[in-house]
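Appendix B. Chain record.
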Amino acid sequence: MGEEALDSVERSMVRLRRGMSRQRLGKAAIRDHNLPVDVQVLHVVDVVDEGPGRPGEEMSVGLVAARLGVDASRGSRIVAEAVKAGYVRRVASQEDGRRIHLELTGAGRSVVEATRRTRQEHFAQAMDDWTDEERAEFARLLARFVHSYDG
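Structure tokens predicted for this chain:
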């Protein structure tokens, strides 16, 4: 990749990360839909909705903590908040009854749907003057980038 393009990608990603770290979209979803949820709990709900990522893997507190970039004790506390709020439930593992995995409740799915609507409205507004072809190409390239970066 050319230096100029790489520099542009790096600077854009930093700006995007800063914007996301301010939790603007999470707070907007909470406000727009009058959700009685803390932003950290909203992050837990998003991670549980995302699913484990690998066949045979189950959503655990440890996996939630890892995806959120927090230590195990912090992960355990915010998962407990999500459970107490009624958005996530602990379920005995199908593979090993001694293990517990996490899944969304109906209320948790409602929070996910409301949050996704808010995010998509914000993204649509940012791409308001883009053609359908530009949006499709951006979606394709962004998914490819994220897959390569995570992979």
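Further analysis of this model is presented in Appendix C.
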